[in-house]
UniProtKB/TrEMBL annotation:
<dbReference type="InterPro" id="IPR024528">
    <property type="entry name" value="ThrE_2"/>
</dbReference>
<dbReference type="GO" id="GO:0005886">
    <property type="term" value="C:plasma membrane"/>
</dbReference>
<dbReference type="InterPro" id="IPR050539">
    <property type="entry name" value="ThrE_Dicarb/AminoAcid_Exp"/>
</dbReference>
<dbReference type="Pfam" id="PF12821">
    <property type="entry name" value="ThrE_2"/>
</dbReference>
<dbReference type="GO" id="GO:0015744">
    <property type="term" value="P:succinate transport"/>
</dbReference>
<feature type="domain" description="Threonine/Serine exporter ThrE">
    <location>
        <begin position="10"/>
        <end position="144"/>
    </location>
</feature>
<keyword id="KW-0472">Membrane</keyword>
<feature type="transmembrane region" description="Helical">
    <location>
        <begin position="84"/>
        <end position="109"/>
    </location>
</feature>
<feature type="transmembrane region" description="Helical">
    <location>
        <begin position="48"/>
        <end position="72"/>
    </location>
</feature>
<protein>
    <recommendedName>
        <fullName>Threonine/Serine exporter ThrE domain-containing protein</fullName>
    </recommendedName>
</protein>
<keyword id="KW-0812">Transmembrane</keyword>
<comment type="similarity">
    <text>Belongs to the ThrE exporter (TC 2.A.79) family.</text>
</comment>
<feature type="transmembrane region" description="Helical">
    <location>
        <begin position="12"/>
        <end position="28"/>
    </location>
</feature>
<keyword id="KW-1133">Transmembrane helix</keyword>
<keyword id="KW-1003">Cell membrane</keyword>
<keyword id="KW-0997">Cell inner membrane</keyword>
<feature type="transmembrane region" description="Helical">
    <location>
        <begin position="129"/>
        <end position="148"/>
    </location>
</feature>
Length: 154
């Protein structure tokens, strides 16, 4: 029961930035609800998988893939580009905390001088940020690679 309430809470608070960024990206008003739903579903899937000890990068990949596949389905249904539904929906999964901590480590290295601990912390957070962003990119690109791939010219 606690997991279900936690997932509902997660879905609600993931839908808010998805709609906010959809508004920034000038998504048509009739598509805003789909951006909210996709953002909520993708983030909830990631949270659900992390709860069961799936690594964050793989869980992010699966959440972004879910957003991508549903976005492609919606794009066929409503004759719109998939990016209308998907780009704003993945924004809640951007690893902002890891990127922030990496930048803070850089500032601390500049201010206090280099130390092994700060350098290790900076590298760790930058690598986590890069891998999570890569999982988002590949997860969103997967449906396009599977459905829109053309045969090579021989």
């Amino acid at each position: 029961m606690t997991l279900i309430l936690s997932l509902l809470d997660d879905m609600f608070f993931a839908a808010i930035p998805a709609v906010g960024f959809a508004l920034v990206f000038n998504v048509p008003p009739q598509a805003l609800k789909y951006c909210a739903i996709l953002g909520a579903l993708g983030h909830a899937l990631r949270t659900f998988l992390v709860y069961f000890d799936v690594p964050l990068v793989f869980a992010t990949f699966l959440g972004a893939s879910l957003i991508g596949f549903i976005g492609v389905h919606l794009s066929h249904r409503y004759l719109a580009h998939p990016k209308v539904f998907t780009v704003a929906a993945v924004i809640p999964m951007i690893p902002g905390v890891y990127a922030y901590k990496a930048m803070i480590a850089i500032v601390q290295i500049h201010h206090y001088g280099a130390s092994d601990q700060l350098f290790s912390q900076m590298i760790d957070y930058f690598i986590k940020t890069g891998f999570i962003l890569g999982a988002l990119v590949f997860g969103l690109a997967l449906p396009g690679l599977l459905f829109y791939r053309q045969k090579p010219v021989v």
